[in-house]
Amino acid sequence: MAPSCRVRACIPAVLLYLEVGRPFSPRSRDALNYQERIATGWSRFLAWLVRRLPNEQQRLLGFTIVAGGLCGLAAVAFHLTIAWLESLLIDPANHAPGHSWIFWTIVTPAIGGLVVGLGLTYWAPAAAGSGIPQVKAAFALRYGLITTRETIGKFVLCAFQIGSGASLGLEGPTVQICAGVSSMLARAARLSPQYRRRMTSVGMAAGIAAAFNAPIASITFTLEELIGNLDQTMLSGVIVAAALAAVVEHTILGSNPVFHVPRHYELGNASSLIWYALLGVLAAVVSVAFTDSLLGLRAKFKKWTTVPKWVHPAIGGAATGMLAVIGLYFFHLNGIAGDPYKTLTMALTGSLPVTLMAVFCVLKLLATVCSYSSGGSGGIFAPSLFMGGMLGGAVGYIDVTVFHHPQDAVGAFAVVGMGAVFAGIVRAPMTSILIVFEMTGGYGLVLPLMIANISAFALARSWRHDSVYEALLAQDGIHLPQGTRPLDPPGDAPLPAHELPIEPTKDATA
Q: Of 418, 319, 338, 346, nearest to 378 (Cα)?
């Protein structure tokens, strides 16, 4: 090992010795040696791969394959970490004995927000928000540069905030984490800035594929949201990474769809198309109301300087906990604070009453606005699907009541509602259709999905031209016009793994 490497390896031991005033224990020394061996082995593997692939295009393909596998592993680790933290934090709070559950359901998200607020303020500011705006800004302005601190900070802080009960999703953060992994690999491979930028699209596709178990939708989302056009030079890498990440996720977590719908819904009666069109209009209303509320409250938090910034997520967490208490107290069902997919699956089977679904749509909108606008770390994918499922199920009851259609229509409308609200908020119409197919495993609602999703997309865009991600970037003073040549990232020369930048990026940090 080189002398500089030995010096770096000794630094943690020296610092710990100075702190505790006594030498390292054998167990601690063994742990450090084990970590050092892993880091050394990984560095040797990367160096071997670079030597074997002297041509830059060959290195791009080789590291795209590596990125697909590593992004799949990172996504699985992230999701399992969140599930573990939920079982330790918000789930016990919701089921505390007596009336103490009310206190703990409010306090747990607040404490989680306080811890995350401290981490975002003093450690990783760029880990705030959903992750999609950060990746878009990195792709357009810095040739895909996402720092190591930003990546690790997103993993740790977002997992803790969602696990403590924030009404946020894990899908957007998964994209940022995977894009960060791809960015680190691109720098380790000594790729040029243009090819490093392509690796960012690889990470986004891999993240969506692993998060939603939807490799096809991940390709269209990357094209619609990040690349902006059918760039064939990037498309091949996107497809390879999405496929590999999905394979890794299938191998570890299983190949079942995200939602376990007992039957595949179909359009049974053409008269129902009237209500599907109405669902598209209502989805546009919910989408614009959500976006406007989120941006408005976020602007107020940014101007609220009398309270320290690191306290803001705790306030949002407490508000989220109060809204969750309302749902639990009156309906004995969660989904506002904690895993929303269990409750959403019940809506997709048509087993929830109409009043509950209408109320939960409003509660989820308010809770997500509070969690996100206060500066939390988490995404809006899952909340948008939840709101859409509840809205669609409520409209389905109108179809059943007026036309006396079978009760199964409620679940079918809930499925279509997910895609409609997603299309209105995210503004990715193709992805909003494909992602519902892949998440439910059914393709019988093509026509209703097309009608509702395109209606929601067109109306929402007419009422508010910018998507939520573009509006968030604009609120931070960042504008990404299409066709603009990306700026050079800081430090254009590729960096070795141990010399990666440690300062977090500053784009879209809330």
A: 338
